Give the backbone structure.
Amino acid sequence: MLAEDIIVCAVKDFEYFFIKSYNYKVKVKLHDNNSSLHASIKGFEHNSFIRFSSDLCSMEITSNEDFIFILNIVCHELAHYVNHHNYIKKDDKTNRILEAWADRCGVKILLCILRKGFYISNLYKKNNYDTSLDGLTKLIGKVFFKLAGNVFNISSKYYYERLIRVMHCVAGANSFFDDVFDDRDLDRAYVVMHNIYMKSGLRNIISEEMRSIEPDLVELQQIRELHFNLQEGRNSITPGLKPFYEKFIGTSYLPTNNAATLAKISIAYDYALQSMKPSRFGLAKSFFGDDKY
């Protein structure tokens, strides 16, 4: 299996999340080497498209960690695409905000595709990868650690520090689980964060870097304003999403949604800072089960 297989399957699944009459399509260019980046969104407004380099497309997938790593990259770009991030001209601050938001939304899209996407879930299960919630959250932690070392580990005015970007990813994971369970269970959130932060190499990054960073909540509060303006009076930025998927990956921005997100980022920050101990909340059931979850 190659990364290209994951890219194609993820895009097909994402398009299926939209009502058929809307004929929603994601413009993708595979083996596009017109950039130093392995994956990015290019163009402007209706001419926007997602490109993936030949090196990335040709990457051989040899583990579940490789699988989720590539899927995360794809879903990060899908988050940019569906939220019309290439419909506005960006200064340094705006770019930082939108990249962090794509980190957060990208994880929600990843989990939604992995849970409900026909092609990706079958591809994942076909390879006998761990399908338990406990195993998946620990796996996500390893992937976030890999992202921190290979993708987020750059010093640039266009991006937040790598640990802040990781915290946005964790906030996205917890937000997805909250939406699935229809609650805001702090016990579960702490277990998820413990699996992600403490069962991976992220623990070392936290101990070394946490005291030197602080999320800019003033900038983060501009998330809703930026996206609300992109709605241009519509019910959502990208209409046509099937109602079932709205609460997971919808593009309608209300003040209450933004407040909940900021609160969850704060929870992740406090947890990492204080190394809080999780309760005995269980994550043993299958991520792909047919029950409520």
Q: What stands out?
A: Residues 64-274 form one domain. Residues 261 and 292 are 23 Å apart (CA to CA).
